[in-house]
Amino acid sequence: MTTKTTVEIKISGEAIQAQRGETILHALWAAGMAERVKAGCDGGVCGACTVTLRYSDGRAAGTELACMKSVEDGMEVFPCAVEEDAAVAPVVNPQLPALQAAFPTLDRCTKCGSCTAACPMSIPVMDSVLRMQAGELAAVAEDFTTCIHCGLCRFVCEDKVKPHNMGLWVRRSLGMSRNFVAAKTQDAAEQEWQYLLADDRELRLQRARHFRQSGGIAP
Ligand code: SF4
Ligand code: SF4
Ligand code: FES
Predict the structure, then answer these.
(1) DSSP state of 35
(2) Centroid of ligand 1 to alpha carbon of 155 (angstroms)
(3) Ligand 3: which of 29, 36, 45 to mutate, judged by most atoms within 8 Å of the beta carbon?
(4) Is residue 84 part of a domain?
(5) What is the CATH number of the domain that holds 12?
(6) Domain CATH code at residue 141
(7) What was the pLDDT predicted at 41?
(8) Cβ proximity of 170 and 134 under 8 Å
(9) Domain boundary, last residue among 28, 45, 79
(10) Which of 16, 98, 121, 179 is the most exposed place for a label (fewest CB within 10 A)?
(11) How far, in Å, CA of 50 to CA of 37, rounded?
């Protein structure tokens, strides 16, 4: 008996043929449907390609990265469209009033918890929004250290609060508030990258924390 080399999947209800073993993202590209899903790294890092799935056998399904998930026969794919938003410029030495001015959506949060439940990186998103409202921005920067900017917290938020956009703004604002950035040489910057890109997750977080607090790498 020969195994079929193609499977049928549906993209928002529209059936396409895909090669067994290829990723959802590659199947969309091969079918000429690249515009249906956003993509960045094609390597599971940037979070741009988030989709929600449904399986034909009723298995529980949730959100996946289209560039990491292989197609399966009968799978239904629903791209998560996060609307475009103009970037908000960071500011030096950010305080709560600057955050409120940049993101008037901050005070809309109704504490429903959907953003925290949706986050694939287990970030306490709602708690962090409450920390933003309290002006605890250093803690917010800490919360969003592992954010991949998939946009799911924003996608599920009925009140359009935009948690990850605010988290990124806080991190950028605090980052540009250190004057060591301008004075850095190329070699020193490269050395810092290597230090921050440690393979072990816990070590990476620990180093990121130390880097943010001290503005440099460990002696
Ligand atoms: S989903 Fe929106 S309203 Fe609900 S807790 Fe998160 S930020 Fe607040
Ligand atoms: S964008 Fe939101 S849901 Fe996605 S990783 Fe960041 S905090 Fe979590
Ligand atoms: S394209 Fe970057 S995570 Fe999929």
Answers:
(1) G
(2) 10
(3) 45
(4) no
(5) 3.10.20.30
(6) 1.10.1060
(7) 83
(8) no
(9) 79
(10) 179
(11) 8
pLDDT under 70 in the chain at which residues? 1-3, 81-84, 178-184, 215, 219
Do 60 and 121 fall into the same domain? no
Q: How many CB atoms lie within 10 A of CB 71?
A: 25
Q: Are residues 73 and 100 in the same domain?
A: no
Q: Is the CB of 125 under 6 A from ligand 2?
A: yes
Q: Which distant-in-sequence residues (6+ apart) come within 8 Å of 28 by Cβ?
A: 11, 16, 34, 36, 37, 66
pLDDT at residue 132, as a whole number: 98
Domain of residue 186, residue span: 96-214
Structural domains of the chain, count: 2
Residue with tokens 């287990």: 122
Count of helices and strands (H, E) across the chain: 10, 5
Burial grade of 43 (CB within 10 A; 0-12, 13-18, 19 or more): exposed
- Beta-bridge partner residues of 23: 70
Distance CA 136, CA 167 (A): 12
Q: What is the per-residue pLDDT for 4?
A: 72
Token representation of residue 202: 């816990």
pTM of the model: 0.66
Residue nearest to atom 8 of ligand 1 (CA): 109
